[in-house]
Amino acid sequence: MELIPAITPQELAQVDAKRLPPQAKVIVNLIGIEDTWTLLSDRGGREIQIPVGDRSDTYLHQLLPQASAAALIKRFAGMRLTLPKTDKIVIQIRNHRIYQAKARGATTTHLARRYQLTKRSIILICTRMDDGNRF
Question: The whole model's pTM is what?
Fold first, then answer.
């Protein structure tokens, strides 16, 4: 699932980590949501081997900032992790975009077509957010 326009750092900052899969929660708490997004966007849905030692030439170092790669290696060195896909993050951001567009006056029909959802789904998303759910 991909959103257009691309997800921004501001949108990522609003993601509720409590609503993510357990493995994603751990990674977010360790390296933050932006670096988690980068990792899951590249390797999500697959099993990865976390390198051992303080080498700086690993795929983690190529993908993430030094501090985040080091934090993952320190916590999970030598382990195999199955990374979740990004879909739970994308759905939260999509729902927030729907809610904002509806608040600006977009019609339920327009939003249903744009996001390829039913009108009922749009109504439920907006109702849940009106009830105080962040996303």
Answer: 0.87
Assess contact for 108 and 102: CB atoms under 8 A: yes
Both 73 and 92 in one domain: the answer is no
Structure token pair of residue 45 = 């849905």
Q: What are φ and ψ of residue 114, in 5° steps?
A: -60, -45
Q: Are residues 45 and 61 in the same domain?
A: yes
d(C-alpha 44, C-alpha 118), whole Å: 28
Torsion sign across C-alpha atoms 100, 102, 106, 110: positive
Q: How many residues does the chain have?
A: 135
Quote the DSSP letter at residue 135. Answer: -
pLDDT tens profile 79-127: 999 999 999 999 999 999 999 999 999 999 999 999 999 999 999 999 9
What is the span of the domain harbouring residue 38?
Answer: 9-85
Tally of domains in the chain: 2
- Are 115 and 75 members of one domain? no
